[in-house]
Design brief:
Radius of gyration of chain B: 30 Å
Largest sheet of chain A: 6 strands, antiparallel
CATH architecture of the largest domain in chain B: Orthogonal Bundle
Shape of chain B: rod-shaped
Structural class of chain B: mainly alpha
CATH superfamily of the largest domain in chain B: Cytochrome C biogenesis protein
CATH class of the largest domain in chain B: Mainly Alpha
Distance between the termini of chain A: 26 Å
Largest interface: A-B, 68 and 53 residues
Largest sheet of chain B: none
Oligomer: heterodimer
Number of domains of chain A: 4
Number of helices of chain A: 23
């Protein structure tokens, strides 16, 4: 009964979305306040209906209702409760429901926090947001209904894919979706602006927090996915340039460009058309990502719910929204007149360069991802595009970006002098080069990756810190620090996010360049040397988990005779799904991770053991978290609170109802 | 359909004992080259894994073949050519920059150049427009007159 109720509210939400996407748009066109006023309650009601539907599906999973097809395919009574929850979105249909739930939540947030938006703009934004909801709910109801019942319910389910039974991955999809779908807000604002024919500083100020929020969520989601891949897939890689990873990376790059160009719109009323285009493209890449993940046209290790019919439907949605948006853009972009002028050397130009590099690098990722498809369809060549291509074709853009970042971040608006901007940065430049040279001198082997990465990382981080130092004004160290709390949060956020970027650049280079790897057969009781450590395989035991069987090794790592860590790498077998997983054992450190993996028993009675020392591994995700933290700091800036919070008190009242 | 996904995930999830201890060459220099080559070759039957990480039997055969050729004294290019001749360019993770694949390699740099060109042209136009907005010739003459008065 609860399930049918959930199904019913989903259909009802679809109807409400149809109303939300039409009447307010018509009202905004006719300047009819009554029709426009439909948007607010419709958005809130749509959200509440989908939330009810989501709760109903969750109920089905938590109570293991095996009359539901979805629950049978993705759950099991013995599964821990956390994964019964996570199972709701660990599959195609359920994740779509989460997708539309977040979509509607963003629409409702636009109502709750958008009190000071002009009514026509708000009506249009909500109508566009509603139309995306219409498309995706139609997709769900017609091709991927999560509420399908089985006539003969089985006694138990098929279990969730064991790889997904991991706390890191349980919350990876919701964050990614918050990011993907958050970009729908920027898209809706862009379309509304094109319909209105007006983009001004206020528009920039409204769009930026949504983009920033989406970008922060994407950053966290991608970092979680990468961290999960690092410890779960068992060979310690953190990024595979897999099509599905790329699908999340492209919107991240474009939204990073968008949140920078929106600054130019807000502060200087320039780059308007470009910003609108980026907002359209950012969501376009989100939809492309959805298409790649769910259609199966491009083979991927994630390949989840491959179904050509669904693929065609999503391609249709992508075509309608992107085709429509880009046509509208072509027709109306000329209306968006730029006001602020700027010289060739200026903050504006630096941000244009930032945008260009980010957009082109996103394009490189895009073309590399779809090239196998193009090559097959157009040139009848079956070929592959993988990590070596992306490393070679993508990295140079990031290197250039990192080189110009500290300079661009300190250039004044409108008109600037390179030499003057460089003056405070001379120290950072010298330090960065010194770090690079030092690393080159110390490291063994001739790889350029380590020194270049270290120099770039130092340059970006030092540049950000000098920027902060300058922003704190003059006077003694104490004077300067006393001004820290009064610094606008957006400036603080910029410094933190940019340093995060520097940290990640350094860590990626360091880990790739200086990893130590060892593969061998080890008998129980035997020791071997790994870098400066001694690793001993003490014992291998069979252990039973809640819904798996484990072969667990007991390994001791010593340095100069002193025990550093006792680690238990596992090989698990999930009998219901019939799938093995590896659980690497990692001793995390500030400067290195010890990473041990146990493999199959060998004929001679030993076990295959793979061990690594991964230098600076945690810095990769630490840098990503710094970026996200910077975004959050920036989001808490006073001027967004002023822009968004005018009706905060009312919003609280609405939420409490 | 679901089965296909499971099989795919099974391949992915298999314990990551890609390179087996018994495959490793005694010469560390040759082994390092073998690893580097393996990381650029795609497992022909898996979902986008290189033969170095893959657990499929064919990947093991390929890894052994690569090492065999290296021990026989082949250069890296010869080894790669040897594998490509048998399995097609599909196994290359980084398509050769020739023929239609040239477009793939040039797409990024060309787009950067085009973008930079457009940005430059726009800034010129904007500068000209801004100048036109500020003072016309007649205005300048008038201004000069006023200033000299």
């Amino acid at each position: 009964m609860i399930i049918e109720f959930g199904h019913f509210t989903l259909v009802l939400a679809f109807m409400v979305a149809v109303v939300q996407s039409t009447l307010p748009l018509w009202g905004a066109y006719r300047r009819d306040a009554r029709l426009m006023a439909v948007a607010d309650p419709a958005a809130v009601v749509q959200f509440l209906l989908i939330a009810t539907s989501f709760v109903a599906l969750t109920y089905g999973f938590v109570t293991s209702d095996f009359s539901l097809k979805l629950v049978v395919e993705n759950s099991h009574t013995a599964k821990p409760l956390l994964y019964k929850f996570a199972g709701v979105w660990g599959n195609h249909e359920g994740s779509l429901l989460l997708w539309v739930l977040i979509l509607a939540a963003f629409g409702a947030c636009a109502v709750w926090f958008g009190g000071n938006l002009p009514s026509a703009l708000k009506a249009r934004v909500l109508a566009v947001q509603g139309s995306i909801g219409v498309a995706f709910m139609a997709f769900m109801l017609l091709t991927s209904n999560p509420f399908v019942r089985l006539e003969n319910p089985p006694m138990n389910g098929n279990d969730l894919n064991p790889l997904l039974q991991d706390p890191g991955l349980a919350f990876h999809p919701p964050f990614l979706y918050l990011g993907y779908v958050g970009l729908s807000m920027s898209f809706s604002f862009a379309i509304a602006a094109l319909l209105e024919g007006r983009v001004d500083a206020a528009w920039g100020r409204w769009v930026r927090p949504w983009t920033l929020a989406a970008w922060v969520f994407l950053t966290i989601g991608i970092a979680m996915g990468s961290w999960w891949a690092y410890y779960e897939l068992g060979w310690g890689g953190f990024w595979f340039w897999d099509p599905v990873e790329n699908a999340s990376f492209m919107p991240w790059l474009i939204s990073a460009a968008l949140l920078h160009s929106a600054i130019v719109v807000e502060k200087r009323e320039s780059l308007k058309a470009w910003t609108v285009l980026l907002a359209i493209l950012a969501f376009g890449f989100s939809l492309t990502g959805t298409f790649i993940v769910r259609s199966g046209v491009i083979t991927s290790v994630h390949a989840f719910a491959n179904d050509p019919e669904r693929g065609v439907f999503i391609l249709g949605i992508l075509g309608v929204f992107m085709g429509g948006a880009l046509t509208l853009f072509a027709l109306r972009a000329s209306v968006l007149e730029a006001k602020g002028v700027f010289a060739v050397v200026s903050r504006e130009t630096a941000l244009v360069a930032n945008n260009l590099l980010l957009a082109v690098s996103a394009f490189v990722v895009f073309i590399g991802t779809i090239w196998p498809l193009i090559a097959e369809l157009v040139f009848a060549r079956k070929l592959s595009v993988g990590p070596p291509f992306f490393d070679a074709a993508f990295t140079p853009f990031m290197v250039v970006l990192a080189i110009i970042l500290p300079v661009g971040a300190m250039l004044p608006w409108k008109r600037a002098e390179i030499r003057r901007a460089m003056r405070p940065l001379r120290g950072a430049l010298v330090l960065a080069l010194a770090v690079g040279l030092l690393v080159y001198a110390v490291q063994t082997g001739k790889s350029a990756l380590g020194p270049v990465g270290a120099a770039l990382g130092a340059w970006v981080v030092m540049g950000a810190l000098i920027d902060l130092w300058q922003r704190l004004g003059r006077g003694s160290v104490g004077d300067r620090f006393s001004r820290l709390p009064r610094l606008p949060r957006a400036d603080l956020g910029k410094v933190v996010a940019h340093s995060g970027m520097g940290v990640t650049i350094f860590a990626v280079a360091a880990m790739t360049a200086w990893v130590t790897e060892d593969i061998r057969t080890v008998k129980i009781g035997e020791s071997f040397a790994l870098g400066g450590y001694d690793v001993t395989l003490q014992a291998v035991n069979q252990v039973e988990g809640p819904n798996y069987l484990s072969t667990m090794a007991d390994m001791i790592v010593r340095k100069a005779g002193v025990v550093v860590a006792s680690l238990h790498p596992e090989k698990r077998m999930y009998p219901v799904a019939g799938m093995p997983t590896t659980e690497a054992a990692i001793d995390q450190g500030v400067f290195r991770d010890l990473y041990l993996v146990i493999g199959d028993a060998q004929d001679d009675g030993g076990y295959a053991v793979r061990s690594y020392i991964k230098p600076f591994a945690n810095w990769i995700w630490g840098g990503a978290l710094l970026m996200a933290l910077g975004g959050m700091l920036s989001l808490s800036d006073r001027r967004f609170r002023v822009a968004a919070g005018a009706r905060r008190s009312e919003a609280v009242a609405v939420a409490a109802e | 359909m679901m089965r296909a996904v499971l099989v795919a995930l099974l391949l992915l999830a298999s314990p990551a004992f890609a390179v087996q201890p018994d495959e490793i060459l005694n010469d560390p220099g040759l082994e390092a080259r073998a690893r580097a080559i393996s990381q650029n070759l795609r497992c022909p039957v898996c979902q986008g894994e290189d033969i170095d990480d893959s657990n499929a039997p064919i990947s093991r055969d390929l890894r052994l073949a690569v090492r065999e050729r290296l021990v026989a004294g082949d250069s890296d290019t010869q080894v790669i050519d040897y594998v490509v001749a048998r399995y097609g360019e599909f196994v290359l993770f980084s398509p050769r920059a020739e023929g239609s694949s040239l477009m793939l390699w040039l797409a990024g740099p060309l787009m950067l150049l085009a973008g930079a060109g457009i940005a430059l042209a726009m800034s010129r136009r904007r500068a000209v427009a801004a100048e036109a907005e500020t003072l016309s010739e007649a205005d300048k003459v008038r201004l000069a007159e006023l200033l000299t008065k």
